[in-house]
Specification:
Layout: H1 2-32, H2 40-55, H3 60-81, H4 91-112, E1 118-119, E2 129-132, E3 135-138, H5 139-161, H6 163-173, H7 175-180, H8 185-211, E4 213-214, H9 220-233, H10 238-258, H11 267-281
Length: about 300
């Protein structure tokens, strides 16, 4: 039982990061009907920003909030430079734009920084353990769960209680009707990208604390996990994104802990197989969402 509880905590810690990434993807999909494959580049930019700030002598207590702000600003810049000009274009055009950003950002870092991964120090405390009711937990997992919950609560408060959140939810439900009611499309889309970027920034802080490296493809794996989590939960559903992220994290940890040692390397393949079965029997994901009208 003790081992199971520890695995659940590990899964919630991992799934919390996936949930934050998936939530950012779901926010953009709800407003623009776009699966943003450039979302992972926010983590790539965050990784290089953390590396540069470490070189400047900063520590994690200052780097963490800086990374979150940089991710939010980078998301807004990407919207202005790329997505702003393809609004109203066919879905395929917008999808190719997101792929284009993904490859352009990678190429820029390869050409002007390096193709090699750069290492930076991880916080010492992430390797510590704490005992709760006689069970040892990693401090890192407890911190991830705690701050993920705070971030999710703050996000849902913004969406439910603020005028921006109400406008964003109205736009996700029916953008044309929302604009007729006075919602300004430029402002709401820019705000959605800013919120998505801030969520990616929080996820990036914990992802980078664990990985401790920056590279041109640093955001690829977390982006894929976030997209999968969003699809599992129901693309466009904010609650579904959280549910999908937590589910994905728990499944991965359970497989890693229970598979024979020689098969642990097949974890991702087995996860993809399970997701394929899910989509066969429930292609809309856990939560069904009525598709919003795209801008």
């Amino acid at each position: 039982m003790t081992e199971l509880i520890q695995q659940i905590v590990d899964g919630l810690g991992r799934g919390g990061i996936y949930a934050l990434i998936a939530l950012g993807i779901a926010v953009i999909f709800g407003v623009m009907h776009l699966v943003n494959f450039a979302h992972g580049e926010l983590i790539t930019v965050s990784a290089y920003s953390a590396y540069g700030l470490f070189q400047a002598g900063w520590d994690w207590w200052l780097i963490a909030p800086a990374v979150i702000l940089i991710a939010g600003m980078t998301s807004v810049v990407i919207e202005f430079l790329a997505f702003r000009w393809v609004r109203g274009a066919p879905d395929f055009t917008m999808l190719m734009t997101s792929f284009g950003i993904h490859f352009v950002v990678q190429a820029l870092f390869v050409m002007y920084v390096s193709a090699n991964f750069r290492q930076f120090p991880r916080p010492d405390w992430i390797f510590n353990t704490v005992k709760i009711a006689g069970i040892s937990f990693e401090v890192f997992d407890v911190a991830v769960i705690f701050f993920t919950l705070l971030t999710l609560i703050a996000t849902f408060w913004i969406l439910q209680k603020t005028m921006f959140g109400i406008s964003l939810r109205a736009a996700a439900e029916d953008f044309d009707a929302a604009r007729l009611m006075g919602v300004r499309s430029d402002r709401i889309i820019r705000g959605a990208f800013a919120l998505s970027g801030l969520l990616a920034g929080v996820a990036a802080v914990f992802w980078l604390m664990r990985s401790g490296q920056a590279g041109p493809t640093a955001g690829l794996t977390p982006m894929l996990k976030g997209v999968l989590a969003a699809l599992i939960g129901g693309l466009g559903s904010l609650g579904g994104a959280v549910l999908g992220g937590v589910t994905l994290g728990l499944v991965e940890v359970m497989l890693i802990s229970r598979l024979p040692e020689g098969l642990v390397g097949l974890t991702d393949g087995i996860v993809f197989l399970l997701i394929a079965f899910l989509f066969v029997f429930r292609p809309q994901g856990f939560i069904s969402v009525r598709r919003a009208e795209r801008v």
